[in-house]
Specification:
Structural class: alpha/beta
Organism: Planomonospora sphaerica
GO molecular function: methyltransferase activity
Mean pLDDT: 92
Strand order of the largest sheet: 8-7-6-9-10-13-12
Largest sheet: 7 strands, mixed
CATH superfamily of the largest domain: Vaccinia Virus protein VP39
Number of domains: 3
Pfam families: Methyltransf_13, Methyltransf_14, Methyltransf_23
CATH architecture of the largest domain: 3-Layer(aba) Sandwich
Keywords: Methyltransferase, Transferase
CATH topology of the largest domain: Rossmann fold
Number of strands: 19
Number of helices: 13
Radius of gyration: 21 Å
Strand content: 15-25%
Protein name: SAM-dependent methyltransferase
Length: about 425
Amino acid sequence: MKKRPGARVSTIRHMDRRCRVCGGELREFVDLGRQPTANGFLRPDETDGEYFFRLAAAACADCAMAQLVDEVPQERRYHGGYRYHASGSAGHRKHFEENALRLLETELAGPDPFVVEIGCNDGVMLSTIARAGVRHLGVEPSANVAELARAKGVEVLTEFFDERTAAGVRARHGAADVVFGANTICHIAHVASVFRGIDALLAPGGVFVFEEPYLGTVVERTAFDQIYDEHVFYFSVTSVRAMARRFGFELVDAERIPLHGGEIRYTLARPGARVPSPAVEELLAEERERGLSEPGTLDRFRGRVERIRDELVALLRDLRAQGRRVVGYGAPGKSTTVTNYCGIGPDLIPFVCDSTPSKQGHLVPGSHLPVRPPEAFADPYPDYAVLFAWNHADEIMAKERAFRESGGRWILYVPEVRIV
């Protein structure tokens, strides 16, 4: 891939082909090329010196953990200008309110309960906990979204979570009945320190609950755009059980949830503290039957990814040749992966509409597609719209019914390229 003028590849932590969890040998299964940080949205005058790294994923031959080959330093990924706001979707707000209510009715129903959320973002989950008057703490390294959480009445510690942070929280607040994380634990490369922190912080009968993108969904749906710098790990039930055991915990529940196209909520406890749910063995058996972590399965995934790239670019070029107007809808981190991997620039998609105010007026990292507010989508409606936020397809299509009524068509590329 040609290097853009003024672009640079900054310092990254190169792996020596050893697993971050167990030290086993890694086998690379997909290379998505030279990529920027997924949520590093730029002002038009900030493109010189843009950060790039090689985005490739590998799987451990010993514990089956899928993970990035190269690690972007966490300080570059999470900072005071972080532009992902978890409350931006109505579906997300509903999901995390239900999460909070469920915890309040179960794990947090005892006397003076305490919950810690790793990566609370803008307080989308803990705000419900706060309104219930339950002791809580969000540990959030990005100062700007931490302030949004505080504005909702959430107590936040602006730090990265590790064993040192956890020890400080324990000393100040006492043991936690629940440590929770959503779309966060897979982002943290220093996993051994995280588990030592959870061990220090969690009450003897407490639980560590986290929900994350599922490798099975990524592979089955060819959702390759779920792979980007923030997602260091791609969990399966098999790899999470191995990770839990390695760090002195037991996987006691695994539950499918619909968020982001299909995730799994994992519950870990100290060995013997809880009776494991039958769902754990059922999902383990399903992964064995599917050969989820087998090299052949992952090689076939790579082949499908390459086919989607070729078909999507061919479709966009054909529509351009026909004089059709195509724009993008949604600028999640996934849009960075797909536009950079496919080489999609403003010549094919002149702009992307997104409802996040902090992204508007900026450029999608690497591909430099301008991000405009939602009002631009109907001014006038395009002929086609590439739905980058495909995990919110039902919500978006219902909201944009007038686009279809005007003759507009949606372009989707997960699990295959198609027009709807």
